[in-house]
Amino acid sequence: MQLQDFFNKNPRVAVAYSGGVDSSYLLYAAKTAGCDVRAYFVKSQFQPTFELDDAKRLAESVGIVLTVGTLDILCSDCVALNPPDRCYHCKTAMLIKLWEMVRADGISVLCDGSNADDAEFDRPGMRALREQGVLSPLRDCGLSKADIRRLSEQAGLLTHDKPSYACLATRIPTGMAITDDTLRKVERAEDALFGMGFTDFRVRLTSQGEAKVQLPDAQIGIAVERRTEILVVLGRDFDSVMLDLRSR
User: Fold this and answer.
1) Cα angle 20, 21, 24; round to 5
2) Any alpha helices (H) in the chain, and if so which ranges?
């Protein structure tokens, strides 16, 4: 199946939008195919502010209406207690909220940006997508992440080389309770490192609550050179800051 075929069959759709590579291309493809498409973003404690800002800017760049809703994801113990299946419960709650927003606008088809590289066996959120009746046209059309980046570049989309990003909850070890305070500390740390020029990195917590910085190989030496500066900035929220010498 080609994307054009999907949109011919579904001329009015909603897209669960994150501002990332996949969902941005899906929006562009839907609009290019002549589809009546709208984008929907759910802001919870797990999405940093910059991600919402990116989503607004990128939706505007392709001329798509973006609807933003909010969700207190930590009100669910199945999420806040951070069990091994946290992602499934989080994804389910997010999709239920998305469907509320989408149906309120009279739209009956909700799509997401999952691609052909997103294997169901290692993506617990895929189960939630199936159960909630969300369609994944990029995946169904066999488009891989590399395909989507290539097509995005050809289309001149700002997202074609945007690094992949996982929600803030992934920075916290399974079994460690997730709190607003912990999430904001991680967000501040990552914002600070980004402001220093680092890219495509993560600030993860250890089981003892220490900060562990993971960087691409090419940036590790720079981090060592700027050690004092990093310790000052991240030390505002963390008593201990470590550099993971393994490639991120």
Assistant:
1) 80
2) 3-9, 21-32, 49-61, 77-80, 86-104, 124-131, 137-140, 145-154, 180-195, 217-225, 227-234
In our burial notation (b when 16+ CB lie closer than 10 A, e otherwise), range 66-90 reads: bbebebebbeeeebbebeeebbbbb
**Secondary structure (3-state) at 13:** strand
pTM for the model: 0.90
Q: What confidence tens digit (pLDDT) does each residue in 134-184 have?
A: 999 999 999 999 999 999 999 999 899 988 888 999 999 999 999 999 999
Site of tokens 């759910």 = 42
Q: Which residues pair with 66 in a beta bridge?
A: 39
Q: Which structural domains are found in the chain, ordered by start?
A: 3-154 (3.40.50.620), 179-244 (3.30.70)
Residues 136 and 26: beta-carbon distance below 8 Å = no
User: Nearest to residue 235, comparing CAs of 179, 178, 180, 189?
Assistant: 189
CB atoms within 10 A of CB 207: 10
Question: Which residues make Cβ contacts (< 8 Å) with residue 233, sequence separation at least 6?
Answer: 189, 192, 193, 196
